[in-house]
């Protein structure tokens, strides 16, 4: 393990070695990771958003193969049902169900939460994976920029709506798939939604920075709830989203990209393992290790107490809900 620690330190500094499949291959071998397929998750209920392709699909498949009852949530009803049938065939599981929601539309999120609560008395894990990178600025029906709506406001609302059920099922977990792209971006609330000078990659990074900050805030505010909160990033993985949104990047990095299974490994491990993922909260992970949320002094300076409070208040106002759980028990 000492050798693994030294190797991890040397790999972490250069982004190319850390984020590509090189980092995954070296770390997994030297640290002798327990294969995900060795976990027995029978009896656990896991919700995965954005589960119909890429990282979400890979996460759903491995957790279902381990025996978890997986709820896959997608935006398109026909595609989501098709993926449910496919995963049932692949894993042999008869406890995979489907829910439909556009994570950027609040009414849709509320309807999905109501469905999940009505059909599942237990909920052990929520994995927020949904989200795309759009080159053009779009807005949702309530006027929120689409990337921020689907990756910040929607997940905030869904977590709040499911929080009591998670608390009642404790120990429980909420896990957010973020992105290493947030490392180059400040925490901003006033400019969280880009307007005139819209750039899809930058907008995506701002949303991801907000996600990791909210992850810490959830952990702080609900530290005694029996629910732990974690965020992770997948490194650079070869997914349909990357192919569609970053074709030049994909061509340049090429064979160094991680597979969806490698990119989703840490999130699936955070959902499955009863060691550090249950005894810590509010952490940011890559390759089964806790990582700092800042690499640049400028982003650290932007991460003030005032901005954090402003972000939470902004999410409460935009989502229309102030998260709370019953403390009567």
Summarize the structure.
The longest helix is centred in the middle third of the chain and has 23 residues, at 146-168.
Give a written overview of the molecule.
The chain has 329 residues and is α/β, with parallel strands linked by helices. The protein contains 14 helices and 8 strands. It has helices spanning 2-12, 15-19, 21-30, 54-65, 77-91, 106-119, 146-168, 200-221, 240-245, 247-253, 260-272, 276-279, 297-302, 305-319; strands at residues 45-49, 69-74, 97-100, 125-128, 172-177, 227-232, 283-286, 289-290. Strands 3-2-1-4-5-6-7-8 form an 8-stranded mixed sheet, with helices on both faces. Helix 1 runs antiparallel to helix 3. The chain starts with a helix and ends in a 10-residue tail after the last helix. The model has no long low-confidence stretch (mean pLDDT 92).
